[in-house]
Amino acid sequence: MQNSKSQFKIKNYVILVFLLGFSLALPLIGQAAELYLESSENNYYIDETFVVDIRINVKHGESINAIEGYIEFPNNILEIKDFSTGNSILTFIEKPKINQEQGLISFVGIIPGGYSGMIPGDPGPSNLLGKIIFESISSGTAKIILKDNSQALLSDGKGTIAELSTKGVILEVEPPKEVQPLRDEWQEELEKDKIPPEDFKPEIVKIDDKYYLSFTTKDKDSGVDHYDILEKFSILRLGIARWVETNSPYLLKDQSLSSRIEIKAIDKVGNERIVKLPATYSLPWYKNYFIWVIIILVILSYLCFKLWPYLKIKQH
């Protein structure tokens, strides 16, 4: 009898342990993606510049097509120098937002066609979303975390919110040593960038009866820093045309679409890619002010030539 009770207790204990283990594993089983931060080192000195990667892992069989991330960092220990979109799998909806005073970073992007994880044959990790460039400004323990309101959407045509886990990084910042050369990981990466942003094809779109220019491109190394645009009006107005820093979509100043357009994509190093668009509609000759200026000048020159002998006679 004692032996039977003992076996019963052992059996119940085994079942209990199994159920407990299974219940702990359930969140992992249902997890579609993991959003995490990664740094090359865990220890830095004051005044060093380093890079923290934002990456994502996707559960086998799942596909992610949109990500919204919110990152918190100690602004008394770290200062953000930049946010690089170079080599990111995301197409950013807008420029990532940085708030040094509140110690917050946010970004939103989509992945056309979805992302289902790294595949065999990838030359390197293909799960990069962005790079945060920090400078350490004081000593202490710096916890950089992904906030709970970060989310990812499944590529299922319904915009379903994916089960998402997050993992931040903890870094130790120490006072500099006299013999310790300070590192600048970001500068080391920038020095390798000799390639301009990728070629791209701008499009003119009509929104609320107004014409806008839509454009975007990527830069695999340092990332696109900004765009400049130049509207080349008729030759008479060319003197007032100038490069203007802008974002997409850009409201065209010339709504007649008779101007030539140039768009310049510039990366973090200064490498440039210029794309040119011809005028959609050419002005008819009688609307081209430059032609009328030429005609008037020709007429005035002819009149001067004809009247010059009479003017000379009057002078004598």
Topology:
Elements: H1 2-29, E1 33-39, E2 43-45, E3 49-58, E4 64-72, E5 78-84, E6 91-92, E7 97-99, E8 104-115, E9 128-136, E10 140-146, E11 151-154, E12 164-167, E13 169-174, H2 185-190, E14 203-207, E15 210-214, E16 224-232, E17 244-246, E18 250-251, E19 260-267, E20 272-277, H3 289-315
Parallel strand pairs: 1-12, 2-13
Antiparallel strand pairs: 1-3, 3-9, 4-8, 4-10, 4-11, 5-9, 6-8, 7-8, 10-13, 14-15, 15-18, 16-17, 16-19, 19-20
Description:
The chain folds into 2 domains: 31-190, Sandwich (Immunoglobulin-like), CATH 2.60.40.680; 203-283, Immunoglobulin-like (Sandwich). It is 19% helix and 38% strand. The chain is built from 3 helices and 20 strands. Strands 2, 4, 6, 7, 8, 10, 11 and 13 form an 8-stranded mixed β-sheet that branches. Strands 5-9-3-1-12 form a 5-stranded mixed β-sheet. It has a 4-stranded antiparallel β-sheet with strand order 17-16-19-20, with no helix packed on it. A hairpin with a 4-residue loop joins strand 19 (260-267) and strand 20 (272-277). It is elongated.
List keywords for this structure.
316 residues, alpha+beta, Immunoglobulin-like, 2 domains, eight-stranded mixed β-sheet, five-stranded mixed β-sheet, 19% helix, elongated
Entry summary:
This protein has helices at residues 2-29, 185-190, 289-315; strands at residues 33-39, 43-45, 49-58, 64-72, 78-84, 91-92, 97-99, 104-115, 128-136, 140-146, 151-154, 164-167, 169-174, 203-207, 210-214, 224-232, 244-246, 250-251, 260-267, 272-277.
